[in-house]
Amino acid sequence: MQDVIKVHCFGCGSLNERGLQIKSHWAGPEELVCRWQPQPFHIGHPGVVYGGMIASVVDCHAMWTAMAAHCRDSGIEMDGTALPFAYVTGKLSVSYLKPAVIDQPLELRARVVDKGERRSTVECVVLQRGQECARAEVIAVRVQPLA
Ligand SMILES: CCCCCCCC/C=C\CCCCCCCC(=O)SCCNC(=O)CCNC(=O)[C@H](O)C(C)(C)COP(=O)(O)OP(=O)(O)OC[C@H]1O[C@@H](n2cnc3c(N)ncnc32)[C@H](O)[C@@H]1OP(=O)(O)O
C-alpha cells in the first residue's frame, strides 16, 4: 500500500530515506501483515531489539490497518490519489512478552477489533520465528488530512 500512497512518515514513508520503510499488506479478509528486519543499530540490550523500535513499527502498521479497513468499509480506492482523511495515534499500548532477537525478522499481524465514529481499535501481535514476542492495542483516530 505504501508504494501507491507516498508519504514522509518515519515508519512507512517511501519518501523518507532514513525511515523504517515498512510495508503493510492484506493477508486475509480482516488481517494486515507487515514484515520488518531490525538492523544492528536498532539494538537495546545486547542481541535484543530496542522495545521502542517495536512500538514504532506497531504504531505505523496499526495506522495503515485502520486506514485500509476504513477504505474497504467505505468503498474508497487506495490508488495513490489524496485521501480525504488521515489516521493519527490516540493511544499505543504494548506488552512485551519475550525478547526479540536483533538478527531475525519480525512479523506483525493486525486487525481492527472495534470501530467508533472516528476511532478504530487495532490489535497487533508481533511474532518472531512464529513465537509471540509482543502484543499491542492501538487507538487510531480519523482526522482531516494533515498538511
Ligand atoms: C498521495 C498523498 C496521500 C496522502 C495521504 C495521507 C495519509 C497518510 C497515510 C499514512 C501516513 C502514515 C501513517 C501515519 C503513522 C504515524 C502515526 C503517528 O505518529 S500520529 C502522531 C501522534 N499522534 C498525534 O499527534 C495525535 C495527537 N492527538 C490529537 O490530535 C487528538 O487528541 C485526537 C485527534 C487523537 C483526538 O482528538 P479529537 O478532539 O479530534 O477527537 P476526540 O473526540 O477526543 O476522540 C475521537 C474518538 O477517539 C477516541 N480517542 C481519542 N483519543 C483517545 C485515547 N487516548 N484513548 C482512547 N480513545 C481515544 C475518543 O474516545 C473518540 O472515540 P469514539 O469515536 O467516540 O468511539
UniProtKB/TrEMBL annotation:
Alphabetic keyword roster: Apoptosis, Cell membrane, Cell projection, Cytoplasm, Fatty acid metabolism, Hydrolase, Lipid metabolism, Membrane, Transit peptide
Start and end residues of each Thioesterase domain: 47-131
Record membrane topology: Peripheral membrane protein
Primary site of residence: membrane
Compartment(s) of residence: Cell projection, Ruffle membrane; Cytoplasm; Membrane
This enzyme's EC code(s): 3.1.2.2
Gene Ontology CC annotations of this record: cytoplasm; membrane
One Gene Ontology biological process: fatty acid metabolic process
Family matches, as Pfam families: 4HBT (PF03061)
GO MF term list: thiolester hydrolase activity
Catalytic activity: octanoyl-CoA + H2O = octanoate + CoA + H(+); (5Z,8Z,11Z,14Z)-eicosatetraenoyl-CoA + H2O = (5Z,8Z,11Z,14Z)-eicosatetraenoate + CoA + H(+); dodecanoyl-CoA + H2O = dodecanoate + CoA + H(+); (9Z)-octadecenoyl-CoA + H2O = (9Z)-octadecenoate + CoA + H(+)
Superkingdom of this protein's organism: Bacteria
SUPFAM superfamilies named in the record: Thioesterase/thiol ester dehydrase-isomerase (SSF54637)
Homology family: Belongs to the THEM4/THEM5 thioesterase family.
Protein name: Acyl-coenzyme A thioesterase THEM4
Lineage, broadest ranks: Bacteria, Pseudomonadati, Pseudomonadota, Betaproteobacteria, Burkholderiales
